[in-house]
Amino acid sequence: MADQDEIWMAEALKYARNGEGKTSPNPAVGAVIVKGGEMVGHGWHKGAGRPHAEIEALQSLAEFSDARGAEIFVTLEPCSTHGRTPPCTEAIVKAGFSRVVFGATDPNPAHAGRAVSLLRENGIEVRFGVLEEECERLNRCWNRWIKSGLPWVVLKAGMSLDGRLTAPGGERWITSPEAREDAMKLRAGVDAILVGGNTVRADNPRLTVRGGGVERQPLRVVWTREERGIPSDCHLLSDEHRERTRLVVSEDFSGVLRQVGAMGVVRLLVEGGGWVHGAAIEEGLVDEAVIYIAPKVFGGGVPAAGGAGASFFSEALQLCEVACEVVGSDVKITGRVLRGEGEKGAGSLPSLT
After folding, report:
1. How far apart are CA 282 and CA 317, in angstroms?
2. How far apart are CA 291 and CA 305, in angstroms?
3. How high is the pLDDT of residue 9?
């Protein structure tokens, strides 16, 4: 039975991944309905305000009555409270399922395990923790935000071999067109893109997602210590997406995170410049890095990460789960920041209180 449960949960995970980067501030969730050893329904959550995965799966059935006596496998504990949509536990009970299997428990302490009690009180068999690690990893950004109110921070940079973010002679791009296209996919999967005020004044970026099939533009966040220093005619404050721009005034990066987390930002892409990267690293608030390295050497200038820098070898930002690939003429390196054993799957955050 356990092995079969894992097989069906793996199927639910496949559907859940269809929603990655599209459901914020909700988690990505998948569900499959099984009856007589065969999958008869499936679904995934497609976005905030839209039906949850369990409801999508129910709506995919040939007949609603097919749910009676069936099993449903869900990657996350079914919701048990009213939000933008009614609780899924009510729909599960009404549909007549005989068994519910879910992977990860809701990280919100107010909801964690509540579905188990509600479903069992209605005579439904419940099993949880199936492929738990995989299901939690799917939503580790959302888990962070739910538990702490802080977004998951992705540091992104396009640089030369010697760590320069800007090219000499007024040239705009260091990386290849293919790398820049790949970076657009990264932007499309986050809730907000952050740069510092110096980058706005020097480069006047747009920070938009360009290309076909764009479903939404992420928020564009400018970190500044003095709001008056941002030119009112810059693209971020004057173009067609100006209502998607937020100026955040803060003396430190932790203050920025508190503010953008309160805006509902679950995944934040930090694009620079070098001093912003340095502040995020020094405060220990980077979770993931995506670096595009062009085969060029310029010399001079501010490095990709400024600030005081590490005093000891042990203080260096260390990546794990590292992957490398060639994109155009560049090398793309991705990895999660290793923080130690404190936090399952992501390391311990420093206290921001």
Report:
1. 9
2. 12
3. 98
- Would you give the distance in Å from CA 326 to the centre of its chain? 23
> Which residues are annotated as catalytic?
54
Helix boundaries (H) for 140-196: 140-148, 177-188
Cis amide leading into 25 (omega within 30): yes
Tokens of 131: 């492929």
Q: Which residue has the higher pLDDT, 37 or 214?
A: 37
* The Cα angle at residue 198 between residues 192 and 203, in degrees rounded to 5: 80
Element at 152 (helix H, strand E): strand 152-159
- H/E element, 16: helix 2-16
Q: Which amino acid is located at 225 in the chain?
A: R
> β-strands 125-128, 71-76: how paired?
unpaired
Lowest mean pLDDT among 6-20, 148-162, 290-304: 290-304
- Give dist(CA 244, CA 138) in Å, integer: 27
Closest CA to 190 of 134, 268, 245: 268
Nearest CA to 264 among 191, 194, 209?
Answer: 191
Q: Which two tokens stand for residue 183?
A: 């970076």
Structure-model confidence comparison of residues 352 and 327, the more confident one? 327
Give the confidence band of 22 by pLDDT, cuts at 50, 70, 90: confident
- Predicted TM-score (pTM) of this structure: 0.87
Max Cα–Cα distance, the chain, nearest Å: 72
Own/partner contacts of 238-244, CB < 8 Å, gap of 24 or more, are: 239/206, 241/208, 241/217, 244/217, 244/218, 244/219, 244/220
Pairing of strands 319-327, 330-337: antiparallel
Report DSSP letters for 223-284, one per residue: EES-GGGS-TTSHHHHSTTGGGEEEEE-SSHHHHHHHHHHTT-SEEEEEE-HHHHHHHHHTT
**What is the residue whose two structure tokens read 């490095």?**
303
**What confidence category does residue 302 fall into, taking pLDDT thresholds of 50, 70 and 90?**
low
